[in-house]
Amino acid sequence: MLVPIVAAALAAASFGAAAQNPSAGLEAYPSRPVRFIVPLPPGGSPDTIARTIATGLNWPHPVVVDNRTAGGRVLAADLVAKSAPDGHTWFLTTDNIVAVIPQLEKTPYHPLKDFSPVTLTARFQFLLVVHPSVPAKTVQELVALAKSKPGSLNYGSSGSGSAQHLGTALLQYMTGIDMTHVPYKGAVPALMDLLPGRIHVFIGAANQLLPQIKEGRLRLLAAAGAQRSPLLPDAPTIAESGVAGYHFDVWSGVLMPAKVPPPIVARAAADIAGVLNAPATKAKLSAQGIDVVTSSPQALTRLIQEDYARWGKVIRATGIKAE
Predict the structure, then answer these.
(1) Could you read off the pLDDT of 15-57 as tens digits, one per residue?
(2) pLDDT, tens digit, for every residue of 55-74?
(3) Can you give the C-alpha Rg of the chain in angstroms?
(4) Rounded distance, CA 209 to CA 197, Å?
(5) Residue 211 in contact with residue 179, Cβ under 8 Å?
(6) Is the alpha carbon torsion for 146, 151, 154, 155 positive or negative?
(7) In which element (H, E) is residue 222 found?
(8) Are 263 and 19 in contact (CB under 8 A)?
(9) What is the pLDDT of residue 294?
(10) How far apart are CA 191 and CA 198, in angstroms?
(11) pTM, 2 dp
């Protein structure tokens, strides 16, 4: 009978040592390649961030980017949520996956319970533009025009519940204007109808709109974020233009499954931040309209909770529905 007693004593001692030394076991992490799931196709900004992290980490095992687009973002998120909580499965999430989609449809994962937030990685600059035929050169003029002709202005998006849809719905909600939503299957088709003037208003990613703005094919009214875009420092924000409190951008971050040991989460967060905050990396990504922003796991947890509540209020007030 001594063997079970000794085994139990050793287990208790081991547990106590781990509790006193939160870093215990970190020397063995990662013990195999890390699978970094990106729920979007290669080439976009989130994929660029994931590959920047994967190639920049000097770990004994590689971080392998896995673009999981089949079945949409929900299935990719659920795959991560149901993975082993050992730190070897990562997810490059965008805010709508955890703050918007679960409020538009029933998802197999719970955004606030089924993940271990690791770190924020970036914010993407969005801009408010109009077709040059629209007689508005400022946000205030656009609001006045929309109020004088309810429903006459069309705005595009890459689909119901998409970033472009939410950003414009928020603007309408805060100003009391009424514009007609025209959803497309992606931002590129929407842009193709914006350029000839078939739709009038668009809130889109800076890296997609900058070439058209510089060529005079679109008129820039304002930056959508809380601060001015470093790419267009002379352009005011929507908030500065009279819509106090308005701010909209899209963020990305890294998640792991729930219940990953905190030391592993902290290790990954610190090392990812080290890669992204390197001056050369920040400059390269900024030129693409990607603002590197890292955080603690706790700060990302709070951000997800805050955005979930914020967008829930907007979705309920505006009646946004899933496609």
Answers:
(1) 333 334 445 457 789 999 999 999 988 888 889 999 999 999 9
(2) 999 999 999 999 998 777 89
(3) 22
(4) 15
(5) no
(6) positive
(7) strand 219-223
(8) no
(9) 97
(10) 10
(11) 0.80
